[in-house]
Amino acid sequence: MRHHYTPESIHQLAADHFGVVPAEVKTLAGEVDLNYRITDAEGHRYTLKISAPGADRSAIDFEAAIMQHLAAKELPFQTPTPIGEIVELPEGRLLRLQSWVSGRMLDELNPRTKSLRHEWGRTAGRLSAALSDFSHPATPTVYKWNPASSSDYRHLAKFLSEEERELANFFWDRFERDALPKIKDLRNGINYQDAHEQNLLVDDEGHISGVIDFGDAMYAPTVCELAVTCAYAGMHLPDPLGGMAEVVRGYQEVFPLEEEEISVLFDLIIGRLLLTVATAAENLHREPENAYLQVSAAPAWALLRKLRTVPPELARVLFGGSVSPLKFTKPPHSIVALAGKQLMTMDFSVGSLDLGNNANFEDLGRFTKHVRRILEDNDADFGIGGYGEVRPIYTTDAYAQEGNYGPRWRTTHLGLDVWGPAGTPVYAPFDGVVHSVAIDPNPGTYGPTIILEHEVNGQRFYTLYGHLSEDSLDKFGSSSTTGQVQAGDEIARFGADYENGGWPPHLHFQVMTDMLGYVGDFPGVAFPEEAETWLKVCPDPLAFFNLSPYPFRFANSPIDSRRAKRSALLQKRKNQLGYGLSVSYAHPLHIVRGSKQYLYDTSGRRYLDTVNNVAHVGHEHPAVVEAIQRQAAVLNTNSRYLHENILAFAEELTATMPPGLSVVHFVNSGSEANELALRMCENWSGTRNMLAVEVGYHGNTGRTIDVSDYKFNGKGGQGAPPQTTVLPMPDVFRGLHQGSATPGKDYAAYAARAIVEAEGEGKKYGGFICESIMSCGGQIPLPKGYLKEVYASVRAHGGLCISDEVQVGVGRVGAHWWGFEGQGVVPDIVTIGKPLGNGHPLGAVVCTPEVAANFANGMEYFNTFGGNPVSCAAGRAVLDVVRSEGLMEHAHETGSYLKTLLHQLAEQHPLIGDVRGEGLFLGFELVRSTPAPAAAPHSLHRGGYHSAVKEAKYLKERMRELGFLMSTDGPDENVIKIKPPMCFDRKNADQLVGYLDRVFQEDKMRR
Ligand SMILES: Cc1ncc(COP(=O)(O)O)c(C=O)c1O
Fold first, then answer.
1. Is 328 exposed, middle or buried, given 0-12, 13-18 or 19+ CB atoms closer than 10 A?
2. Distance (Å) of CA 521 to CA 137, 449, 462, 890, 893
């Protein structure tokens, strides 16, 4: 029976035996000991521990000694230090006092990042290093939780279910066969052996700041320290092996492992997990009510099930185990007879211009044609390339896997491809035996594949031949490991696309120094974070072709070279480009490809783009690309000649607008469109005075900056110029008329008032400029009736009304082509930019014939590039795709769906104060309620809310890490904007909100 001491008795014990007078006593959890946190009057804290009756004094002495030993070391984390002497209480209980270690449990930390896992490993490494010179006569040598003695507990298997027992026995059999014989020769030492989530403490920044509980320390193989650490750090991860590898890397940095240790580490990790599950099952049998004893069992089982399919050899190399480099000797025979043939380098890297648009390879039939065309265009018999190449080819949804940092794809190609005619013979380079012959019937795989095993100069290695013809395999029969081959034997032929996995005819040739436990197959592409390891196992196979000169070379380790390239670009950019140019994200992205709603960086990682409303119909939409390419090949010149494109485009564009808006001026950007519109207002009214809206943005030119409160009242701005009157942002959520039943009227009244005042002073306004949903303002939809009222006032005064549709136009709002339609108004001038050319610089000013006539006052309007045949071809293609792909309906449906999901998210996370927008122009605002009264515009505390600026930034950065590009905006940068390419679909919405939900649960979002 557990004895329960009263706070008074604890008070007494602490004071009597240690001279510490508690001001506060708090009971703590403990498996065996009774533990109390004592705080004295000065705030000093201690842990008071009372053992179970009859506790082993020598064990407690040992624990005290280990803590004393660590206290004398310089460690980057705290450990408890014994204070005073151990006291023997009646009943044989032992009383002791230790210094308190502050911090919260790692268990409570969210998220567990890559750097945390790295630090977790380093912490275990530091403990190994610090304990390497410690010894004690009472050191325990037998202990249940020791991974090295896992199989001594096989008898506990009787408490497991049949399925569980099968799994456990599978691992224990392997443990006894492969690990046990090596364990006896490993170096031993005293290990802490308990670095789990509840024994590690972290500081406010999430760094490991403390290690507690030395009750499990024992003499064991040193590597068991790391095995225990990995067993815990690998839990709850989609990719446990990757997570463990990060821990191992950290450990090795401070305490390098020996080769033999690495070779048993994986089995020791599993050994520890088996102890966890088997003991939990035994406990369940004995104490079915005690939930505490089951805490780790479920995640340990989940982890064991995941690890079943991992070949231990793979784990060994991912943990840093050595891979013997191939001492290459020239093969007696080339694999493909390339002598005298016309060869070319085939570049299929992510940013490859040869590879071109994703449409060239997403459909394998088209890819076959594309490859054939490249070879033909270059008069080449064979194209060679691909070793170590980062490719975008395998980044579709079908290949996506859930990684520890969001979705991930295998992108680094491990073999060398020889692209050439089907039927090309393939020869064995060296003597060897057939290791396996296999056919994977699934499209996109290797199809028919042969793997040979060779032994040359005492060195064993393997060669893989993929995408062969089916009849190539006939001579080997269907079973694996049949037959000898001799160098120069024709072993196979290139398969045609109908038999080789669906690919353009080619040979995938790969060399492996180790099969890592694979049979009949071997990965041909690696995840970016594992690429370096895989490339070590799979050396450059080009030399097998006896080629000179070397047409393709993979020079650097991909990760390092990418990193170096990125920082070089960043540095150059800083020096050479305008100093005011910003770059997105704390870790800027090096993006080299776009397709649909996705962008790709140089590691081949695919990001879901929720930011880019310029790539309106999808990044590099093939129809737009083709329209541009075809027209550019024939004619691109200014609009002083007659040409069909400009007229057809003008006609098609105005057909999307109300009848009065019928005259088009083509320009090259949104800024230029607004600049022109402002000139039209001046011509019309004789004044430059304008009404504009708070936090509005209309462009980067002189006149447009003058109507952009976002700029002139933002950083580096000089305030409103005299000709601009700023009207309050019509924000129903936090604005001046929060809670009003008639916000449209209320906000419009400011325009009317400004006009009355101006007229009183004999001043005039040339017009009013406003977006139909405010973008930089933070995705602010205009309240009902707002534009109607303002337009009426402005027109009565004689001014013109400009609707800036640069962000929201061309069907993005779903229900209409143009945002102003939702307000039931017809502007005098509509300005269009971003989406109109799908990335091609194209803008337009559409106005009434009256405005156009007034503007044509004799001064010629000439625009060198505006309306050129290529731009117009791009614009026509965009309008056509919006129609033919039903993108407006799609934006309406998908946007409504996403908005519903966001509203549900807001119910879970009160930090989301408002969800708003229309179609695929949405946003949500992060705020905390504050008792402060509604304050002035531009205040962080507007409308009784505090803008959650840090959280918005954190969310944006975290989402980027997880593979989702998002942006922030609004006066305080606390609004997350969502305005993706219009092909963004429901699945994207589900995934996006799923990940948002995950990040909203992280510590920094819950301060
Ligand atoms: C509403 C609005 N108008 C005009 C512009 C200026 O367009 P551009 O950058 O194409 O000159 C922008 C650009 O962000 C904008 O958001």
1. middle
2. 52, 8, 12, 42, 44
Nearest protein CA to atom 8 of ligand 1, as residue: 670
Tens digit of each residue's pLDDT (9 = 90 or more) over 820-834: 999 999 999 999 999
Greatest distance between any 2 Cα atoms in the chain: 109
Residue pair 225/146 in contact by the 8 Å Cβ criterion = no
The CA 834 to ligand 1 mean position distance, Å, reads 7
Give nearest CA residue, ligand 1 atom 3: 698
Q: How far is the CA of 769 from the centre of ligand 1 (A)?
A: 13
Place of tokens 């989402």: 959
Strands 416-419 and 506-512: antiparallel
Ligand 1 atom index nearest CA of 700: 11
Ligand 1, pocket-test mutation among 671, 695, 832, most atoms within 8 A of CB:
671
DSSP 794-834: HHHHT-EEEEE-TTTTTTTTSS-SSGGGGGT---SEEEE-G
Amino acid identity for residue 742 in this structure:
T
- Given this model, what pLDDT does residue 480 score? 46
Does the global pTM surpass 0.90? yes
Per the model's pLDDT, the better-predicted residue between 62 and 477 turns out to be: 62
User: What is the 805 CA–ligand 1 centroid distance (Å)?
Assistant: 9
Residues within 6 Å of ligand 1 by CB: 669-671, 674, 697-700, 771, 775, 804, 806-807, 833-834
- Are the beta carbons of 131 and 191 closer than 8 angstroms? yes
Burial of residue 582, with CB atoms counted within 10 A of its CB: 0-12 exposed, 13-18 middle, 19 or more buried: exposed
User: What pLDDT, in 10s, does the model give residues 754-808?
Assistant: 999 999 999 999 999 999 999 999 999 999 999 999 999 999 999 999 999 999 9
Partners of 35 in beta bridges: 28, 49
Mean pLDDT of all residues in 95-103: 96
- Tell me the sheet residues that pair with 48: 36, 97
Q: Is 269 exposed, middle or buried (0-12, 13-18, 19+ CB in 10 A)?
A: buried
Phi, psi of 817 (to 5 degrees): -70, -35
Integer Cα distance of 997 and 995 in angstroms: 5
H or E element that contains 171 = helix 162-174
Residue nearest to atom 2 of ligand 1 (CA): 698
Cβ distance 214 to 192 under 8 Å?
Answer: yes
Give the tokens for residue 722.
């005299």
Burial 359-382 (b: 16+ CB within 10 A, else e): bbbbeeeebbebbeebbeeeebbb
Three-class SS state of 344 = strand
| 141-175: pLDDT as tens digits | 888 899 999 999 999 999 999 999 999 999 999 99
Cα–Cα distance for residue pair 346/377, rounded to 1 Å: 12
- The Cβ of residue 995 has, within 10 Å, a number of other Cβ atoms equal to 19
Q: What is the pLDDT of residues 450-463, one digit of tens each?
A: 999 999 999 999 99
854 Cβ contact list (under 8 Å, min separation 6):
680, 683, 684
- 679, two tokens: 């000139």
Spatial neighbors of 937 by CB under 8 A, at least 6 apart, are 694, 728, 729, 735, 736
Give dist(CA 392, CA 350) in Å, integer.
5
Model confidence over 230-250: pLDDT tens digits?
999 999 999 999 999 999 999
